[in-house]
Amino acid sequence: MYDMSTRRRALALVAQGRSLNSVSQQTGISRAAIRSWQQRLEPLPRMTSPDPGPPADNQAYSYLLGLYLGDGCISGHPRSGGYYLRIACADAWPGLIQECGETIAKVRPGIGVYNLQKVGYTMVTSYSRHWPALFPQHGPGKKHERAIALEPWQQAIVDTHPWDFIRGLIHSDGCRITNWTTRVVLGEQKRYEYPRYFFTNLSGDIIRLFTSTLDKVGVDWKQANSRNISIARKASVALMDPHVGPKH
């Protein structure tokens, strides 16, 4: 059913230290099949670099995880065996660009962080051998074309710091806007404004991670369509504002 390149790609992910469950969710291949390939094929060497251990700052990591799931990617260096973490930030939000770089430095103190200017956006970039271990959602292809699920240790961090995760997702793939409407009151037409939050993502799995976290903090939301979540109730917007607020 699977050709040799597919089998070796799955085993390469396991060799990076990924769990069978994580590789199975990402590739769509059963754990039993991957386990059997481990026994039948020549094993690939595991990464020899030290285990990076947990993030240095869990609160910063929860925010960075949201940014990564929204507008981030990890790509390998062709010669060194290391990886680049890249977070795309629109140039319209210089505060976001700065906070993204500062957050990466909190998660991995002492690591280099630099900005690459693109057309209309900045790619906040950092190099390390450990990014796939810290972001096991990394894999070939686009996020919305593969399964995305948090590892238990990641979910524990999000459960402890849910607002930072929500803020990261909003700051990457969301926004806070002000809508308006008009009503006739006592014969006079008046304008009313009301803020709301939107979150947009092509991945149903990432949408569910976002909405399940909203549920845990008591925020009401509505799904406008398969890719858009709206938060418009006055009480929920008021709950979001101190923790998220508009991008800057």
Describe this structure as you would to a colleague:
The structure is a single chain. Among the domains are: 4-40; 58-142, Endonuclease I-creI (Roll), CATH 3.10.28. It has 248 residues and is an alpha+beta fold. Helix content is 42%, strand content 24%. The strands form 2 sheets. It has a 4-stranded antiparallel β-sheet. It has a 4-stranded antiparallel β-sheet with strand order 5-6-8-7. Strand 3 (113-117) and strand 4 (121-128) form a beta hairpin.
List the helices and strands and how they pair.
Layout: H1 4-15, H2 20-27, H3 31-40, H4 58-71, E1 72-76, E2 83-90, H5 94-107, E3 113-117, E4 121-128, H6 131-134, H7 152-160, H8 162-173, E5 174-185, E6 188-200, H9 204-217, E7 222-225, E8 228-231, H10 234-240
Q: How would you sum up the major sheet?
A: 4 strands, antiparallel
CATH topology title of the domain at 58-142: Endonuclease I-creI
Approximately what portion of the residues adopt beta-strand conformation? Answer: 15-25%
Give unreliable regions as ranges.
Answer: 42-49
Structural class: alpha+beta
Q: N-to-C SSE series?
A: HHHHEEHEEHHHEEHEEH
> Strand sequence of the main sheet, in spatial order?
1-2-4-3
Shape: globular
Helix content: 40-55%
Report the CATH C-level class of the domain at 58-142. Alpha Beta
Number of DSSP strand runs = 8
